[in-house]
Batch of 4 targets.
Target 1
Amino acid sequence: MTLRILPTPIASTIEFPAPRNGAFDPALGDAIVPSPAREPALARLREPGAVAVTTGQQPGLFTGPLYTVYKALSTAALARILERQWQRPVVPVFWAAGDDHDFAEASQASWIAGDGTLRTASLPARSPDAPLTPMYRQPLGEAIDGVLGTLATDLPPSEFRDWTLDWLRRHYQPQASVAHSFAAALAELLAPVGIVCLDSTHPMVKRASARHLVRALGLARELDRDLEDRVEELRTAGMDPGVAVGDGATLVMLEGAQGRDRLVLADGGFMTRRGREQFDLDALQRLAAAEPERLSPNVLLRPVIESALLPTVAYMAGPGERAYLALTPPIYQRMRIPRQPVLPRWSGLLIDPRVERVLQKFHLEVSDLLEPPGTLEARLIRSQLPDEAVRALATLQTAIEAGYEALGKSAAEIDPTLARPVQGTKHQALAGLQDMEKKLVQHLKRRQEIELGQIAKARTLVLPDNKPQERVLSIAPFLARHGPSLISELSDAIEAWYASALEGALDPS
């Protein structure tokens, strides 16, 4: 029994991108993370008419949750479709957002332990008053060896267990930064399907981005008003972008005394929100020229910078991103940078053979496991009640309701004030019947603890912590069981889904 890949679409149809003019800057080639895919991708990006399909993500331990890999594979799938359609090179590029400073999110990984429970392992937490150091400056530290050890203990013997651990250990080493280990591990994993990772913190990217960041600061007041207007427009249309704008907050982050900090408008100039450091635009222009690594875009400006630096024809985004990226059209317009379409990334479930066995045993569908906890179990237990008991319970309920209805009418004729006591007695009788049914179910439940445990473990595999599998679990244990071919299988499945979703929208030109 093999792993089943089950699409769970974010959207049923998607917009077909349009070609765009532009060229890849060869100077950015140094920022492509080394991998077997690097040189072939660079050669193709240098060809006339070459374009890119992109996505991006902040760092995550052991490449983060599954959806990070799905986002990347979505770029490869769409790129292959567009390349066939347009007869020009289309290269999938993953923007590794190493400037991100959310250590709590980047420092943990989750998987299913040997006993079937959800395991979450993490690096030691940062002190609450520590500077918000960007992940490309944050070392993993010696604790990474312990986290790798925990994963190794939880991975059962399998054909690809050692291969998976060796892959992670090559990149997740104490001296490596959180961001660089993430980008390097992802680049190696995705190279077989032609995806390359771009290190957004590389000096060449920082220098190329600096002028756009300074321009965004120069337009900060106009952009602030534009975004407030856009929020109102979206809310009027019943949409919630899910991100706060306004209050003078710019789209640019500066690494200062308190770590990565938001620049806000203040007294005719700018100030870092936490550190309260003051700058005027000239000072920030000088800083951008001398220390461009200290500046970075926020989540709304990042895809704009990406479009300015790369000839990108589409950005693959998750549902949360798609909501807040709806705010960005005024930014592109104000900065005079072409806007790439935002397309939904692929979403799906990996149905492990362990889950398949439970589904077959209990004659279930995957959708049954996705119901609220307890719903399926209650239904299965009730299905085990003897037919005689089910009939008796139904007969008693019907008799109670019919008998008390007749009694209520007679009582009301004798004295209208008796109607309420009769109803109360009826409810007590029905409650007693329900209590009896619960007792029968509880006894059956104790007799079937093993079966219920199997269902609980299967649910944890597809809905860990009652959250979507792709938002919680790392890909590492799946690779340990199924090997590197899983990436190719996922890539093919995702391409097939996009081909279907784009059917009828393909532009023959």
Target 2
Amino acid sequence: MAVLAFAWAGSAQAASPQQLTIPMSDGVALSCSVVVPDGTAPSGGWPGVMLFHGLGGKHQDMETYAVSALAPAGYESLECDARGHGASGGLFGLDGPRDVQDTKELFTWFQQRLGNGNIGAFGISLGGGAVWEAAAAGVPFKAIAPVITWTNLVTALAPQGLSKSGLVQYLAGLVPTSKWDPQLLAASAGLTTSADLTAATAVATARQPLAQLPSIATPTLLIQGRHDFLFDIDQALTAYRRLGGPKQLYIGDLGHAPAPNPPAEAPLFLKRAVTWFDRYVKGTGGASKPTVELAHDPFDGTVTTYSGVPPTKTISVNLPGSATMTGASGKVVRSVRVTGGPHETFGDSTVTVRYSNGTGWDRLVAVLAVAGNSTPITAGGAKLTKSSGTVTIKLMNEAVKFAAGKKLVLYLSSTSLAQAPGNALYLGAVTDPAAKITIGKVTLKLSVLKKAVSK
């Protein structure tokens, strides 16, 4: 959830950030800055945007957007270090209740400074979660733009009861545990091992806007990555489908690994955000229509626009065979050449596995890749509760193009390392050398766009 670094040459109209400290009602001081546009403010005061950084980041990360994009467009901005980050006091709460209270108090402070309530919010990753939680709690933003973030933190971190333990361990290291809220520390051990997700599920459920989405009427611009193994496309699509107010979704090459984050794309989606704030914070530009934009990959400056969720079709292939894998290094590999194409994945794909004779084997991880490419298309995992049966593994919703005639390779194991030594998405492999499981028929149902858009 670390902040993304984007470069965008800004206008000379932007002023330099002014550093300040804002005390919260519990006595904790937050380190912040404001960026004020050059020139004379409108008679009603500048409109404002609150900016929220990613995990392990600081408010200076967000000053780039304030100086290069928002101030030249006539917006004053407020950006602060979250609790447990940067120079702010307090404990890291993962967008918990105290963080929401901070946002409420910062909104009031900013509103009084501006002399008006024309305020929007833009947050990246952890900061996007802060924006969602504040909107769900009733903070009266005129418009919001949550970027590469979650709506369902439970399925983002531990889909189907199996933690993305490699990612979780990486994220946990971005903030020293000495600065964690005790509730998070108590839940972290079970999340890392997937042994007991009770506490982690409770913490995550309390920090996601999923249940409140239908009641959020705030105009929302969703910005999500097409190839992001932390927060996949479904995290944004869920909101797009459920929100009742004005909404648009931009899907591009930005995001967490393995997203390429091309610097040339930043001006495009930042322009989308400024246009969104112009429409709903400044009140210019009229109403918008719900649309989904899919930027092409590799990024070429163009997008394909849909009036709703892009239409897809399902390619279903059987991967027959029977093989037994044992111990930590065990894996089963199946491959297929998909006819037609080129194809571009999008939507909910699954791998259904028939298995038997499981002994000491409590998980199954599936990784799908193009032969010869170390970066997977997608992956998924599930906990096993029986020694024999059928399990359907839901793969992450990733938009990845593969050429006609390319061979797809499916790796099945207890860890994603079976696909490539650098694929540390799912760790926590079965370690008992006596553990074994027999993999039988496998069915891959691959969701792809009806028409590939990338070159």
Target 3
Amino acid sequence: MIGGIVRVSIDKNEPITWGTPQARWVLLATVLGSGIAFLDMTVVNVALPTIGRELHASVAGLQWIVNGYTLTLASLILIGGSLGDRFGRRRVFLVGIVWFAVASLLCGLAPTDESLVAARALQGIGGALLTPGSLAIIQGSFASHDRARAVGAWSGLSGIAAAIGPFVGGWLVVEGSWRLIFLINVPLAVATVAVTLRHVPETRDAESVGGIDVAGAALTALGLAAVSWALIESGERGATAATLLAGAIGIAALAGFVAVERRSRHPMLPLEIWRSRQFTAANLVTFVVYGSLGITFFLLSVNLQQVLGYSPMKAGLATVPITIVMLALSARAGQLAERIGPRLPMTVGPLGVAAGLVLLSRVHEGSTYTGAVLPGVIVFGLGLTLTVAPLTATVLAATSARYAGIASGVNNAVSRGAGMLAIAVIPGVAGLTGNAYLDPATFARGFRIAMLISATLAAAGGALAWLFIRNEVAGRAHACPAAQLDRRRYCAVDGAPLATERDAIETH
């Protein structure tokens, strides 16, 4: 509550400290859970050409196979975070894992591209429940001085899960079927549930009361769906009356969402969290950078297969250097941001991503892996490593602990929504429509344009970070000068409290 006492219930569990057995188990559970969702987002990309051929899908069909998942994820992730804060983050996380596993089974059995899109939308609902919960569990259960380090480890390990997706997907497609990329989620989900039930403590927001914001969730889903459909169809058929009407409906629904949240007694997105300039700036950077990442991962594996003639497995192996770089350096990136503040890493990281994308834009028919692909993915991986952990830690440190689930949900919604919009818009701008992915020359030209657009977005993200991110040390964001403490010894910066009751006691 702004200006009031902040209490975060941890169900009588002591804060978890770094390096203890329970810390490792909690990290394992949250990384497994979020990793399933991240893995699924990237593993699908490497299988897109095979899915398209087997199910006779167009470029628009492939876009919806990706965006069907992202749409429900981005639409409902805010309410997923709110549900976790109210009913218990571990409980909602478990529901999300089970839901995701059932939807994955439906994806693996889908007979048509339309039914696959529908099953992917169901997957997104599960992802909306488990994704914010994984990070909120860390924020709510770890001791304040260990949160930045835990978030850094979570970011790196979850990022690795996303990065190995293309390799795993390629191997499964070559050795079995594209359907296995969905069916593999079931045993992973079982393992996640087992670890979570045994080792993860329950945390919640003790002040979260009231009803569920159904109106807000419905308006978000309608707005994003209508805008996405209008953008994808405009790329395929141009600006028709139907696309213009859908776009108008989508924009009106999103505007209605803001109005509803402003007036709701129990909004799923409390608008006061945007009073923190650091939170707003970090999400602005997220939107631009993750738009770049979304279109890159959508097109890169397709380009390697359709233009360079790689098998799905070889296309997956081609991106393994990203995994290696993130495995080696992600934890150090989190520690660096904790030591020097997030501004420099969040500036240099996106610029490194942009440089890698410029290198990848040079990939054309006849390019060699070591001469064209490898330099690009290494530079891209270095930039991504410097970006992810500091950005995530900055978003969480910019709000009070009671909003951990909502803050995580907002940031995930922004990142997924940005990727969805980029996938909806950029292929049409780059000339990748119809069955263009089946023509290597056409796809190569479109890929180059798309990568240069993506590089511009990433570079813009770095510039925004330099201009608007304050150089606060994420792990110490709750500590502030005595002049900024109120009479109950709480710190308020930018209108948003940065210290919980326990933080205030520990720090002061």
Target 4
Amino acid sequence: MTTLSRSLVIRLLAILLLALSAATPLAAESEQQEREMFKLGAKLWPVYCAQCHNARPGSEFSPAQWNVIMMHMRTQANLPANDARAMTEYLKHSH
């Protein structure tokens, strides 16, 4: 390996290590946001869904099915986007 290619490999590894170390706090922040969305969804789910019908348990449908159902129900019930996201997060992860 030439000196130039060795130098290039070392620089690329340094960039990769910096990128990975920078991504770790973002992952922790993202996990915290997901937990907060889950908690909010757990509170909103019975409030919104029980107004018109029996609220379904999260285990009744798969996560992919909940995505479709919540998209439909968001338009039917005129749900705010953030509330719909929170309830979807809750329902998808409450199996």
